Amino acid sequence: MGKLKVYADRMSQPSRAVLIFCRISGIDFEEIKVDISKGQHLSPDFTEVNPLQKVPAIVHGSLKLFESHAILVYLASAFTGIADHWYPTELSRRAKINSVMDWHHSNLRNGAVNYVINTTLAPALGRQLNPKAATEAENVLLSSLKTLEDIWLNGDGGFLCNGIQPSLADLSMVCELMQLEVLDERDRSRILSPYKKVLQWIENTRTATNPHFEEVHNILYRAKKKFEQQRARTAETRTGPSNKPG
Amino acid sequence: MLKVKVYADRMSQPSRAVIIFCKVNGIEFDEIKVEISKRQHLSPEFADINPFKKLPAIVDGRFKLFESHAILIYLASAFPGIPDHWYPADLSRRARVHSVLDWHHLNLRHGAAPFVLHTVLAPVFGLPLNPQAAAAAEKILISSLSKLENIWLKGSGRYLLGGLQPSIADLSLVCEIMQLELVDEKDRERILGPHKKVQQWIESTRNATRPHFDEVHKVLYKVKEIIRAKQSNQGDGVMQSRTKAPLASKM
């Protein structure tokens, strides 16, 4: 069987989850960059890999697979030596992890991705910011954070479903939340700071998967700086000529 | 051995998928009706079963679980003698089943459920109809049906992913599409009509799960009749947004 190929854009939250999982688990793979901001996901070559034109996607032998949760589950099952806590063999534990990954789509992902795009990222993707969509998305995001804080992170485990070690669900969802790094710091703080367990959980997941977590997120931190600079420049322009710094 | 308890409302698409799966595979279970239109899902007793107050949910011994895909996977794995095609042991085939189950949430479900709610079902829950939300949902629904027709149902098999027999993904997604039975016949024809493979796939899935599929969908057909009768009583076929909810008491 040929080497695993992972088609990814590190600005894509689920792409990062797959890359970090491969690295932390010692899975041998080739990372193939697909830059969404350059429209590379729409190329005929990539459409061959994934007709739905989304990242991440993998090719492993004759298997072409997309949808990050399906990919994570496949990798955790198909490769040897993967620690059990990622996707436990015990069925009821596994079912709990499946249930939070299912919940994620319409809740945390739906809220977070639309909020970040409609307040910040849209222009980088050739789209318009949309304040109305942003407000709706923020409601979904806040409701999801509350649910994480009160229900999914209930207990002392430090990870979802009272886990004492991270599962695929923790990795997927923390990568999603990391996208909030590109927001204005005040917004990010306003949104996240009430949720102490969530903040701790992000740290726990980061610690459990470093140095790979930080390395894979480097591009996001660079993007964060760029957006900060852009926002500062916009603010300067708005203060008018009489207030221009000397 | 305690029977599995399945908390369900047969008006809920994912509830139907779980019930049909249990019946087709001879899984012994107790069906506990939780009527959403009577707000029974908001009771403290049910919140104890599922803090998210959604259906379906199961209790197996002391183990409580919600999210229908997680439930279907659990049942397919935990009970003996379930034919392999429902949730294949082969990891590549299994992964593909996972991928369409995942795609479903923000595509077919995200389009179909709000479309039906905002065009016809809302008054049953005491809510106003919302044509704007219906239009937005319709776009997602049609796009999803198109992807099913051209991508997911590609291949010589009658089922998703070129399958020759149904998987839990087929059951879940077909139950979702069945909710369209409730909308006006013209709308249903307009939306589903162009998608021939999708229509064949619905029939194949129904046949493969006879007689349970039709039996479990009976309540849907009953509600369809009630809605039709109400519409013809009002004469112009358009439901008023401030409809009193006599429907609720009939469910």
UniProtKB/TrEMBL annotation, chain A:
Record key words, sorted: Transferase
SUPFAM superfamilies, A to Z: GST C-terminal domain-like, Thioredoxin-like
GO molecular function, one term: glutathione transferase activity
EC number(s) recorded for this UniProt protein: 2.5.1.18
PROSITE patterns, sorted: GST_CTER, GST_NTER
Membrane spanning residue stretches: none
Gene3D superfamilies in the cross-refs: 1.20.1050.10, Glutaredoxin (3.40.30.10)
Signal sequence annotation: none
GST N-terminal domain ranges (all copies): 2-83
Source organism, top-level taxon: Eukaryota
Pfam families: GST_N
Domain GST C-terminal residue range list: 90-227
PANTHER family in the cross-refs: GLUTATHIONE S-TRANSFERASE T1-RELATED, GLUTATHIONE S-TRANSFERASE, AMINO-TERMINAL DOMAIN PROTEIN
Protein name: Glutathione S-transferase theta-1, variant 2
Gene giving rise to this polypeptide: GSTT1_7
From TrEMBL, chain B:
Name used for this protein in its record: Glutathione S-transferase theta-1
GO MF term list: glutathione transferase activity
PROSITE patterns membership: GST_CTER, GST_NTER
Polar residues: compositionally biased ranges: 232-243
Gene name of the record: GSTT1_4
Domain GST N-terminal: start-end pairs: 2-83
Family named by the database record: Belongs to the GST superfamily. Theta family.
Residue ranges occupied by any GST C-terminal domain in the UniProt entry: 90-247
Region span, Disordered: 232-251
Swiss-Prot/TrEMBL keywords: Transferase
Keyword Transcription regulation assigned: no
Entry EC no(s): 2.5.1.18
